[in-house]
Specification:
The protein has 99 residues and is of the alpha+beta class. It has 4 helices and 5 strands; from the N terminus they run αβββαββαα.
Length: 99
């Protein structure tokens, strides 16, 4: 498992979750996948993202963070995880077509 920052280690020691949600775009369906929820492309605005509105809880467990390629926090931009770095290393030609 990759190193978890001291901030997340602190949250874990307090029994909190990460406040982060697995995040992906499903091109075939033209939806964003956020946790277990699907959000239509034209309905998603990262500046107004609200896990409460989607009913998706407090985020994933801290130990699960490295298992996801991209995570989205309640506030701020998407966070690239170790899984995406691993994918890029093994798929350098596909990276050119990914955005």
């Amino acid at each position: 498992m990759s190193e978890i920052s001291s901030y997340f280690k602190y949250l874990k020691s307090e029994g909190d979750k990460s406040g982060l949600y697995p995040f992906a775009y499903v091109n075939e369906d033209r939806v964003f996948s956020i946790g277990d929820e699907k959000v239509a492309l034209n309905d998603f605005d990262p500046y107004t993202f609200s896990p409460d509105e989607l009913g998706i809880g407090d985020g994933i467990d801290i130990d699960a963070m490295p298992q996801h390629p991209v995570l989205i926090p309640i506030m701020g931009g998407a966070i690239v995880g170790p899984r995406l770095h691993e994918w890029v290393e093994t798929n350098p030609k596909a990276l050119a077509n990914t955005y």
